[in-house]
Design brief:
With 210 residues, the chain is an alpha/beta fold. It is built from nine helices and eight strands. Strand 5 and strand 6 form a beta hairpin. It starts with a strand and ends with a helix. The model has no long low-confidence stretch (mean pLDDT 94). Bound molecules: adenosine monophosphate. Adenosine monophosphate binds next to helix 2 and helix 3.
């Protein structure tokens, strides 16, 4: 099963990708996590991406398309994958089509902007393993430390209030048109993102199996 998760930043794509990944035993591929990892390691790509990410902007299409092309060619993707955070623009979706990648289902997790702002401002991520938490909705069982690896929980630079507004603006301008793009293929299923993570994953898994 080859899946795409669409939705605004903070709609819960990452959390749902982790759940589907365990359930279907296919890798969850997050371009955001790959870019952050490259930034942490100071690679050439990471250095190029840094100012875009921290300013709440999208990294240029050719950079992310290159990352995805290499990742999808790896052995573990041959039995299926979940794309979380890619494509984010129409040219990225077109590039995926040009690569000859078959997509079975596109799940769009819909959440109102006001909720997104509340979610992103309360988000905490593990600086070591990248696991994501929320101070109210998904607190770590270990307080300020990651429940999975014990790493410190931090606020992402791009989760600062002004940057959140910029990311939402870019989402509406550049990513939302993908609803139309995939709507035309008949593969798009829209799920209303719920407060309750388990309820959202029930709806998401039903959409995967639909
Ligand atoms: P995310 O964790 O998915 O919210 O991604 C964090 C940041 O990485 C985004 O705000 C962008 O700057 C960058 N990024 C991740 N995926 C993409 C993509 N498909 N296209 C462009 N930029 C991306």
């Amino acid at each position: 099963m080859n899946l795409i998760l669409l939705g605004a930043p903070g709609a819960g794509k990452g959390t749902q990708a982790e759940i589907i990944c365990e359930k279907l035993n296919i890798p969850a591929i997050s371009t955001g996590n790959m870019i952050r990892e490259a930034m942490k390691n100071g690679t050439e790509m990471g250095q190029k991406a840094k100012s875009f990410v921290e300013g709440g902007n999208l990294v240029p299409d050719e950079v992310v398309i290159g990352i995805i092309k290499e990742r999808l060619a790896l052995e573990d993707c041959q039995k299926g994958f979940i794309l979380d955070g890619f494509p984010r623009t129409v040219p990225q979706a077109e590039a995926l089509d040009k690569m000859g990648v078959r997509i079975d289902r596109v799940i769009d997790i819909e959440v109102p902007d006001a909720k997104i702002e509340e979610r992103l401002s309360g988000r905490r991520v593990c600086e070591k393993c990248g696991a994501s938490y929320h101070v109210l909705y998904k607190p770590s069982a270990k307080g300020e430390q990651c429940a999975k690896c014990g790493g410190n929980l931090i606020i992402r630079k791009d989760d600062q209030p002004a940057t959140i507004k910029e990311r939402l603006k870019i989402y509406h301008e550049q990513t939302e048109p993908l609803r139309g793009y995939y709507g035309r293929t008949g593969k798009l299923v829209t799920v209303q993102g719920q407060e309750d993570i388990a309820e959202t994953s029930r709806l998401t898994l039903a959409a995967v199996e639909a």
